[in-house]
């Protein structure tokens, strides 16, 4: 099934360098009227077998929820644990290429937030306090007194709120194509105002639309293997009834909320802002805005890369992290 979305291309073409491109979901919802509903229901009703994880997978119960995470490294190094937080519609799998590119003595953990990836998706409200309290509980349960916190996209927003609330738990901070500044949020607030259409959009979602969105907005020069890995990691969390429900609630409860501008001046940790120079989801110019408002921060652009540099160029991002950890 191939769907031509002229509205998406037209709207994306009107944005200049200081604005984000149209979100895949926004485009998808507007294009749903072009496809017979019966066909969408047929595709979306195909059985989706949620993967059971592999040798890197771990589970822990926090706040009555079973939380999934990936863990690498033997911990023999002298540095703190790297704790990685994924973005909207993402999961811990987004960090797998980066984790495997790091030296074996670096202890790294990537968590599936509640309602995401392989973590539980209960019928509850999803908001920033839920994410923050779950991460704090995770650190306590794993005995992580201080971490290098790494947040991608929405995970950057979550990481900044976490650092502001529990500064003693964060030794250093890494933001990868982060989300959360006032002007940066504006185009995404459209999603939070679409009510039941957001629920319907995620309910009718399928791998075809996910791949379309990844190619259009997420990667820049990613190989077929990179694209399919991102599609698979996205599908594992948002397809199916429970995943669609939790993702829609996260969209309404987190996206467009929790502006970070007032938090940035209070962030005293040494910080690194990494950005793909061809990010079509969140414009690269925002890197300077993040850096300028924090006390001790610098930025690094990853060339020929889109919204997920840790997936498109994991070795380059790993090298940046290694240098940053030595500072």
Describe this structure in words.
By secondary structure, this protein is an alpha/beta fold. It has one domain: Rossmann fold (3-Layer(aba) Sandwich). An 8-stranded mixed beta sheet has the order 1-2-4-3-5-6-7-8, with helices on both faces. Strand 7, helix 13 and strand 8 form a beta-alpha-beta unit. The radius of gyration is 19 Å and the shape is globular. The N terminus is likely disordered.
Summarize the structure.
With 327 residues, the chain is α/β, with parallel strands linked by helices.
What key phrases describe this protein's structure?
Rossmann fold; disordered N terminus; single chain; 327 residues; eight-stranded mixed beta sheet; alpha/beta; 43% helix
Tally of discrete structural domains = 1
Shape label: globular
Quaternary organization: single chain
Instruction: Please report the total strand number as a whole number.
Output: 8
Broad CATH class: Alpha Beta
Number of helices: 15
Q: What would you report as the Rg, rounded to the nearest angstrom?
A: 19 Å
Arithmetic mean of pLDDT: 84
Largest sheet composition: 8 strands, mixed
What fraction, in percent, of the residue positions are helical?
40-55%
Q: Which structural category do the helix and sheet elements fall into?
A: alpha/beta
CATH superfamily: Alpha/Beta hydrolase fold, catalytic domain
Unreliable segments (pLDDT under 50, ≥5 consecutive)? 1-51
Strand content: 5-15%
